[in-house]
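Exercise: predict the fold of this chain.
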Amino acid sequence: MPMELVLLPIVESAFNPYATSGANAAGIWQIIPSTGRNYGLKQTHNYDARRDVVASTTAALNMMQRLNKMFDGDWLLT
């Protein structure tokens, strides 16, 4: 994976785990609820793993790896 991916949360949320978008994306990676569920991020009234930096980063990296395979290894399309 390109090292530049470490900077993506700056653009998405300014590294704020409590950031929330108008589309209900949450956390440093701005993951929407359905994507979070697809990647195993628990979301309850008391806990939202999209705001957990470690859990959401693992999910985001897994998602990027899957997308990269789908786009035949082209990181610009990923």
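Check your answer against the key: The chain has three helices and no strands.
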